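Recall that a protein's primary structure is simply its ordered list of amino acids. Everything else, from secondary elements to tertiary packing, is in principle encoded there. The following example makes that idea concrete.
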Amino acid sequence: MCCYLLLLYTLSDCKASFGSGAGSSRGGSSRGKGGSSRGKGGGGHWGHDSARHVVKSDSLKQKTTFVPWGKGKGDKGKGKGKGKEPRSSVKPPVVRVDADAIGRHCEVKNAHGSSIQAMCMTEQGIYTASQDKSMKRWKPAKGASGCYELTAELTIPLPDSCHSLLFSNGWLFCGLWDGQVKAFSQDGAEATMKGHNRRVTTLAVHQGVLMSGGADREVRLWQMDPATKTFNCTHTIEESMPGPINKIHPLGGHLFVGGLHGLAMLDLSTLKVTKLLPPTKAVSDMLEFQGHIIVAYTEGGLRIFDAEGTLKSEMKMLEAGPILKIAGLDSGPRVLCGHIRGQVTTITLPSFEFKTEFQALAGQKVDSLLCAGHDGIFLVGSQDGSLQLWQRLEGGLPS
């Protein structure tokens, strides 16, 4: 059939070991409109805006709680996490995990007024998006204690609660509860994409095409008009979708679509579902690693498939129970799994073996995970709006 139309203004994600795939797509209906202003790119390792056109306020200066790694209780990481029923009790949160050389730098209480649903990294800093209808940008910096602090630099009001974020080639895309996708460009342009009629849960970019998946059981493909910087919906895919969609990820010539009723493989040359991969259980998240896709199921198990959908490995239900989010940590490397009762499980790669599990949050859901892509740094976003910054050190934690 038809292959992807090439855009003059290409959107692309650059990742290292944990990356995005390759493939193709086609053309259709619907448009978003351009808009007003945002800050432009900055300097330094983390970057900052030289001119900001969004709200900045002293109210953003939340207090950050620091607990040096040498104090507090360590987690010994007991339990293998395979084939066991999840325990019902929740342990007190820890600040260091000696079993996997992981330590917490800081925690920002009330970083948002509600659940932090999504996070992403840009040259300007760390963006978090919440059900409180706002997106914030955070600047990490080392304090006097040697631990990183997180300072909120700005907030961007959103028209509705945000459930997915994606940064690609100068554009920041926000998937909203009401089905809109709001887009902000580093050059100050804005765009709004309307098409989904329920929350947009997942976003991806592949060969210059923006893809969105939602609770309305649809995958939509969007292409940008470089002259007007508006996005046109070229295709809407509904047939054979695995229920309300939680995650999409392109790999090879396919788009993997994870939903309430399992995992589907969409052929990107025909835009037709060619396979439904067992089991027919809810998929919570996906992660690409070395040409394979790691799939996390809500019940607490994980599977690895190759680009053709062949099952390569399987991990039964983790001891910490239901999984909400997974992320790829460069240090190790590791798969991090965020759980419904505030635990984080670490799994070694490429051996795909359980390493340890620790209590990051005091019984709150781990609603988002973000790995910085360097120095073993990762962030945990909580159901109650708190934000934590952690680090895994290859040589072990300081005593």
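The chain is about 0% helix and 45% strand. Confidence is low (pLDDT under 50) at residues 1-16, 20-63, 70-74, 76-86.
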